[in-house]
Amino acid sequence: MHDIIVIGAGPAGLTSALYGLRADKSVLVLEKETFGGQITFSPKVENYPSLMQVSGNEFAEMLLDQVMAHGADIEMATAQKIEKKGGYLTVVTDQGAFDGKTVIIAAGSKHRHLGIDREEEFIGEGVSYCAVCDGAFYNGRDVAVIGGGNTALQEAVMLSEYCRKVYVIQNLATMTGEGRLVAKLTEKENVSFIFNSVVTELIGGEKLEAIKIRNTEDNTDTELKLDGIFVAIGQVPENAPFADVADLNDYGYIDATEDCLTKTEGVFVAGDCRSKRVRQITTATGDGAVAALAACRYIDSL
Ligand SMILES: Cc1cc2nc3c(=O)[nH]c(=O)nc-3n(C[C@H](O)[C@H](O)[C@H](O)COP(=O)(O)OP(=O)(O)OC[C@H]3O[C@@H](n4cnc5c(N)ncnc54)[C@H](O)[C@@H]3O)c2cc1C
C-alpha cells in the first residue's frame, strides 16, 4: 500500500510526487503514455519562472529525474477506475490494481486537434494549440486562429498586438464567443474574420507555409499564405474513469475545493484536468504542490 498514488506523470503529477516524497510519504506514479505529459510536445518553453528557455522534453526530463532521485515508484499503466474500500482506495489499471491511502488525479487534458494530414508533423513548426505559450514566436508574422469561441477570440486579441496579420477562421456563420471580444477585433486593422470555413490542408516543407480552407457554403477552396496557425477548438479532459469519485463540470473537468479535494475523502485533483481558468505549467505545478500537501495532511490525520 502506498501513501499516495498519482495518476498522470505530467507537470502536475510529478510535482505532487515530489512534494509527497519530500514529506516522507511513499508515492506511486502511474502514467499511460508519456512521462512529462503535454509539455513534451513543446519545442520551446520560455514562460516558466527562472528558466530562460528550455525544450518541453528537457523540462520533463529534469522534473522526472528530480522525482526519481527522491525515490518515487513508477508504473506504466492506464488508470481505469478508483474504488473506495473501507479505509483505503484502490486504483484499477490495465496492469492490475494498486492500493493507496490517497489518490491524486493529474490526468491532464488534450487540445482538440483538427484531425487533418501533417498536423502532428507541423506541431512547433507552425501549428500551435496555445497562443500564450507560443504567440511570441510569431512577432511580426502572419497567423490564423482556428475557432470562434472565447479562447479563440482572446488568442486573436493577444496575437493582433504583435503579429502583422491575424485571420480568425470559424466553421460557422458567426463567432460564438463574447460580443465585446468580436467588437474589439473588428476595430483592429490587422484582423480579418473568415466565416463558414474549415481548414482542409496544411502546406509547407519543414515549416508550415500556407493553409487551404474550404468555404462550406459554396465548396470553394482558398489558399492562405501564413507562418502559423493557432488551433483553439476546445480541450478534451480525460476524466471519464474518475466520474464515480469526482464531480465533473459540464465540460468534463473535475470540480475541487481550494485544497484540490474532490467530493471523495482522500481523492485529490491537480493540473489541467481540474476546473479552472488558466492551464499552464506554472498552474499545474502549483496545483501539484497544493494537492500533495493536502493529501499529506489527510494521511497524518488518519
Ligand atoms: C504544444 C504545447 C505547448 C505548450 N507550451 C506551454 C508553454 O510554453 N508554457 C506553459 O506554461 N504551458 C504550455 N503548455 C501547456 C502545458 O503543457 C500544460 O498546462 C501542462 O502540461 C499541464 O500539466 P498536467 O500535469 O496537468 O497535465 P498533462 O501535461 O496533460 O499530463 C497528464 C498526464 O496524465 C497522463 N494520463 C491521462 N490519463 C491517464 C490515466 N487514466 N492513467 C494514467 N495516466 C494518465 C497523460 O498521459 C499525461 O502524461 C503547452 C501545451 C502544449 C500541448
Descriptive overview:
- The protein has 302 residues and is an alpha/beta fold.
- It folds into 2 domains: 2-111 and 235-301, FAD/NAD(P)-binding domain, CATH 3.50.50.60; 127-231, FAD/NAD(P)-binding domain (3-Layer(bba) Sandwich), CATH 3.50.50.60.
- It contains 6 helices and 17 strands.
- Strands 1, 2, 3, 4, 5, 6 and 17 form a 7-stranded mixed β-sheet that branches. It has a 5-stranded parallel β-sheet with strand order 8-15-9-10-11, with helices on one face.
- α1 packs parallel to α2 (56-69), α1 runs parallel beside α6 and α4 runs parallel beside α5.
- The longest helix is centred in the C-terminal third of the chain and has 21 residues, at 281-301.
- It starts with a strand and ends with a helix.
- The relative contact order is 0.18.
- Flavin-adenine dinucleotide (FAD) is lined by residues 7-13, 30-34, 37-39, 41-42, 45, 47, 78-79, 106-109, 111, 123, 129-130, 133, 238, 241, 271-272, 279-282, 284.
- Flavin-adenine dinucleotide binds at residues 7-13, 30-34, 37-39, 41-42, 45, 47, 78-79, 106-109, 111, 123, 129-130, 133, 238, 241, 271-272, 279-282, 284.
